[in-house]
Amino acid sequence: MGEKLLEVKNLKKYFHTPKGLLHAVDDVSFSIEQGKTLGLVGESGCGKSTTGRVILRLLEATDGDIYYKGQKIRDLNSNEMRNLRKEIQIIFQDPFSSLDPRMTVSEIIEEPIRLHKLITNKNERFERVLELMELVGLSERLINTYPHELDGGRRQRIGIARALSLNTKFIVCDEPVSALDVSIQAQILNLMKELQAQLGLTYIFITHDLSVVNHFSDDIAVMYLGKIIEKASAEELFNNPIHPYTKALLSAIPRPTIDKKVKKIILKGEITSPINPECNCRFANRCNFTEEICKMKEPSLEEVISNHFVRCHLFKG
Amino acid sequence: MNNKVLEIENLRIQYVTDDGTVEAVNGINICIDKGKTLGLVGETGAGKTTTALSILRLIPHPPGKVVSGFIKLEGLNIMDLSEKEMEKIRGGEVSMIFQDPMTALNPVICVGDQIAEAIHIHQNVTQEQARQKAKEMLEMVGIPGARMEEYPHQFSGGMKQRVIIAIALSCSPKLLIADEPTTALDVTIQAQVLELMKELKEKFQMSMLMITHDLGVVAEVCDEVAIMYAGRIVEQGTLIEIFTNTKHPYTQGLFHSIPNIDDRKAKLIPIKGLMSDPYNLPKGCSFCNRCNYAMTICETQKPEKIEISDTHFVACHLYKDNLDFQLRQ
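Structure tokens for the assembled complex are given below, as produced in the milestone run.
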């Protein structure tokens, strides 16, 4: 077994809204081993991006613990946190708004190195930028261009180069390919996989696209309204989904084949409001198998099969 | 018997800008029969939406300009119609569903009135009847009629898209143009909306032009497929032909770029490089700089349409002298 690089325990993030308390992330726990990828899947509003941001302390958690290499991240002061940011980075979804339009490619990639005083010599820093550009497949001639001159795929490569510019060990990838065309998406996914093998990176891969997450992750956690409702290895989750929501989610993916038709499970209704949720199963009103108990009591996350966790009253370990 | 709802022949559209001329659509031919669905597939900038807008004559002019070709709706050439006659067609004979349900509705008018508006304009009915019909439409797409008086912000994304579908179908159009109707929606909601569209298409015997970049969506709703690249249709055929007898290297590249959900070990084979600059398309085949099969002729000469079968054609030099050429797997 590999070493746990990151461990999240009972993480909670609530937002105050005029209508009440919004439970964006509600009691989420998981861990990731060094060099592995955890896929965090769910529909819009399920709290997957918030989870990613809370881990990096871009948002402060309401409650819970985050351990990085055994160190409690939430107890670090701003100086220590700043130091830690050399190792933990994020790649954002939208390569159009996450880059400063007034900085050139080299300035964008160089900025983190300069700010963290990793390389103080200007020439050496320039060398490092060239090295990073080569690593992510950006040609050298683009070094003085501005982001608006580049297409989405190249911009996302800049985002990756920037995330790698320090001594990065761990990256939260927040929907890194959803804004890109399929042919470009495949290029970026392959690049990220190669970099992971080459540099021993650990990823949290946040996405709504199940086919991408299956391709990319070792373990998958499915989120629904702030809770993890199923967690297993990617292979197990896709071969043997247990939670009714996971099953529906998997069947709903439009498959680009004409011979193997999967029977679709069409869910009723839509995701309910995460503001002041009731104490029942949050999926109960859309579930095709709802029983009395689902409306009364909240299910807990149980280990149904070895290393396969499900939050559902119908399945107990 | 002419069963064709839509015929597009040799359509060319340019955008003339200060930086140069973009040849957005370069001589495409499309034909949709009654009750059939054609999928128009391609990446950003392939010219899919421009093609769709031209059917409603909504290309912004300037900078856009239809240079040549004609578009016929049930045999009627819409290029000759006056603006007044066109208004009757838009939302009447031909409706369009736009990609983004968040911006397609008017935020200060309640949804019932927005549906009734389309009915009142196109059909000879009173306000009261129009509102009654609007209520029926709303119920048909699965929203309680009582929510007629609510405003768009009170609905979720999937519901807004249903309202838009209700507006589009309110006058029983002969042709429905759906421009990436589910791209902005979550998968479970996407499944609901696609199911609804399929159902309603059957019910109204409507023809549909489905614009999408998602081959999964194509496999689910389309009868025929046209693959578009840099303003041209590079391959066209029935759903089965395109999926089981893929001919064009670009079509194959698209299939190889999609992660296979049933085989997680399969490696993605991306299409190398980027789409050519639309201001400056290559002299020969637009795809030749990204193609793994490119030959010398591809750089200098535009490929002709080559018939594989009555319904299947491909624009690629590989098949010029050898119809049985097989792409490497």
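Chain B has eleven helices and twelve strands. The first strand of chain B starts at residue 4 and ends at 17. Further analysis is deferred to the final report.
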